Amino acid sequence: MTTKVAGRKMYFAGGWVKRDQVIEVRDPQDNSIIDTVPAASAEDMLKCIEEAKKGAKIAAAMPVHERISIINKAADYIEANKEKYARTIAREGSKTIREAGKEVIRCIQTLRISAEEARRVHGETIPFDQMPGSENRVGYYQRVPIGIIGAITPFNDPLNLVAHKVGPAIASGNAIIVKPATVTPLSALLLAEAFSEAGIPPKILSVITGYGSEIGDVLVTHPAIRMISFTGGLEAGEEIARKAGLKKISMELGSNSPVIVLEDADLEEAVESTVSGAFWAAGQNCLGVQRIYVQESIMNQFETAFVKRTNQYNIGDKQSELTDMGPLITEKEAIRVEKLVNEAIEKGAALLAGGKRHGAFYSPTVLKNIPEECAIAKEEIFGPVVLFYPFSDIDKAIEKSNNVNYGLQAGIFTKNIDKAQKAIAKMDVGGIMINDSSDYRIDAMPFGGVKKSGLGREGIKFSIHEMTEPKVVCFKLSNC
Questions:
Q1: DSSP for residue 246
Q2: CA distance 424 to 417
Q3: Is residue 301 within 8 Å of residue 68, measured between CB atoms?
Q4: Quick one: pLDDT at residue 7?
Q5: Known catalytic residues?
Q6: Domains and CATH numbers, the chain
């Protein structure tokens, strides 16, 4: 039997359009078809960029109070339709309905903060008379929009991570073209719906659905696109960087985040926080806890409590309020995680919990005694798997934490301020959470990493800085 679906349109320069070629959007829980979206062509993307050129001029000329009003109205629309947004996130992606509801709330906050930051796109006066011979010059610089932003967004936060690009772009007077993840485009289209209902002028915002192989390169390489904002995997990020040409690039490329647990930590708090951090959104989270370094004196106690809490996780129907964890985004991804775990076990790792796959579901998994040569010990797992390592000395734990190619965020649990400060100083990451897991973020903070975890910083204020550039103004005065 063929499932009948309505077929969603994509948001093309301010209008809703359909195409004969479509992409099926499926629920990873049972592989059922939820809806279809247009499969845009390279020609579609080229036309969209031409429209965005006009949109960039409209956006730059839009008064700040109008930008603020539109962004706040979009947030109001989402707030009034929270259940629809949450159900869509939970249906097309991996998140449970409880996780999806929290993402909707964060999206609303992201837009509210974007509206506030639109007021604060400031410049500064410049004392030109610091240079001899320039006593009769005065001036300043102002920050101006760069033009058109190309945004490529992932499946794991299909609404809020789109808002993290759209909100700052509009707040700072740019046009933006979003290419959402092929497997989760519906949430991005709902964000476009909110801005459409809010009255955003045509041509400023587009959400173009399609395959990356067809439209991605056009967006990335086109000279009219002045910035690419990408969130996704390392390999894709490196490919974009090679192709992009002379334009700004902002990238968040993931991690394999470490957490250090010292013997003076609040054990119950550390266990609860790291379990949640490891298995939120089925572990498909760039901030997710992947490596836990536990001081030897408390290792047995921590391990027992962590495994007990892991085994209590309720795995199943994403739409149920009782479910703690749903499936991975596709069965293919679950098989990939399964292979990583099996390789580690074959090479000597000990399985403490989980290790079972059923379709796209993979049970929360805990490993210890992991050989260093295993891929799972070095790379981002992006699945519900966490690795245990004992340590005796904090310096060794920090050294091992840093001994990877990533550095997004980290966590440390301790009541000792000196040891916390040592970790702050020596851990090579973009952010460190004290008495919390690596999986903590607010939408106003500068967010990003070092090494292969990315380039630049997100967080509304910091994204706006990336999406604008300084223009210097100098007056030469004749009578002063």
A1: S
A2: 10
A3: no
A4: 86
A5: 252, 286
A6: 10-253+455-471 (3.40.605.10), 257-442 (3.40.309.10)
